[in-house]
TrEMBL record:
Coiled-coil annotated residue ranges, if any: none
Reactions that this protein is recorded to catalyse: 5-amino-1-(5-phospho-beta-D-ribosyl)imidazole + S-adenosyl-L-methionine = 4-amino-2-methyl-5-(phosphooxymethyl)pyrimidine + CO + 5'-deoxyadenosine + formate + L-methionine + 3 H(+)
Gene: thiC
Needed co-factor(s): [4Fe-4S] cluster
GO-annotated molecular function: 4 iron, 4 sulfur cluster binding; phosphomethylpyrimidine synthase activity; zinc ion binding
Residues reported in the UniProt entry to bind substrate: 68, 97, 126, 161, 181-183, 222-225, 261, 288
Positions that bind Zn(2+): 265, 329
Name of the protein described by the UniProt record: Phosphomethylpyrimidine synthase
Species name: Halostagnicola larsenii XH-48
Leading EC class: lyase
Amino acid sequence: MPTTQLQMARNGTVTPEMRRIAERENRDPEFVREQVADGQAVIPANTSHETLDPMIIGREFSTKVNANIGNSETTSDIEEELEKLHTAVHHGADTVMDLGTGSDLDRIREANVEHSPVPIGTVPLYEAVKRAGSPEDLTTELLLEVIEKQAEQGVDYMTIHAGVLAEHLPLTEGRKTGIVSRGGSIMAKWMEAHGEQNPLFQVYDEICAIFLEHDVTFSLGDSLRPGSIADACDEAQYAELDTLGELTRRAWDRGVQVMVEGPGHVPMDKIAENVERQQEVCDGAPFYVLGPLVTDIAPGYDHITSAIGAAMAAKEGAAMLCYVTPKEHLGLPDEADVRDGLAAYRIAAHAGDVGNDRPGARDWDDALSEARYAFDWREQFSLALDPERAQSAHDQTLPEDNYKEARFCSMCGVDFCSMRIDQDAREDGEMKDLERNTDLESSPAAEVNLPPVGTHDADAVERFEADAESVTATDGGESDSHRTDSSVGSRDRTPSED
């Protein structure tokens, strides 16, 4: 009996999740099903995640953004982590990864799943090491135990560092920054200590079985990603990528969804090569990239150095971008860092969608440009990526309400505002007046390409429940009725027999 979105898509079934995604992406439900069936897109949706508003990750859909949160031994408790989750969702994160390594991991993880309308991702290796005491003391039994527990808790996707093999480790010896992936360094240390192959690689089939039962999506970790632009596209990175391609196909053969993680630090001239090579080696599985950072000189500004690369990667076909905050390389991000990182990455994702001519993606830009030209300040603020920040910047110098009607700002003043001058010239001369004609309500754009950016909320889950009354089997041309329980997480994913 099919249990995963991939299996049901291959079986010809348009699931309620696919219908909800079609609504959010403004696409045909059958197209959504085909992309999932072919492995070109994933729907991270653990069957136990009750508050989830389904979403999709794939290069043919709007570019998604992930936000990393998580505590450490030195900072952050459950209340702070939930505040980070709220901040991430409010500012437009499409998924959130809990990378906590501190105390109370189970309670924090369960709280995140319980309160999150977006998919939650984890790296189970971190908890396994914490329980083992050291990388050398890890066992395959403990790894499987932790993975199964997190799957049962409702985690939607997990980073699994199964692609770094013992034979890859010597390839890193000429690097400037060695192995910078947490998971990669842990696996390397274990293999060096035991003289054996990567334990996650050894039990990969068992992991697939757990993921199959709960419909957890693989996020295959790039353990040998470059940690500096000098190490980009080296033999170690690409040797692991070849293994990730093999692991992708093995998971697909078992009915499990897969996306593949990517670099890292990559100079601008090699970003297209990275995306193209991953798409070829991994048969089009969605590519999920961290950055990439295009230069290494700007600690404190790495949300900018990485957003430049992220925009380029999105244009080349990366499906999801993992945000980087100003604290990258320096410390654990706080709420303000999460906000700044998400703003940078929402810009990068949207720029990629505009560059790829996604349906309606530019309508948001056009609507804001029209409001700017018309000096409709309140409309500008409401259409801005971060309305609060946009208005705050304006009001620092012109706070009074009468300036919301003014035909200038403090940058140029009254006499040197180019748009006011242009308008006056059109009014007094032969040039035609310009019209505002962009209607966002009728735009074909996906939700993430329309304001407000933070579209996820409890109401969205309720709409999904109300709309998910049927699934369609395309292979036989007949419709099967389908009912859901009051909670999304307890929904039965198989068509009824009647």
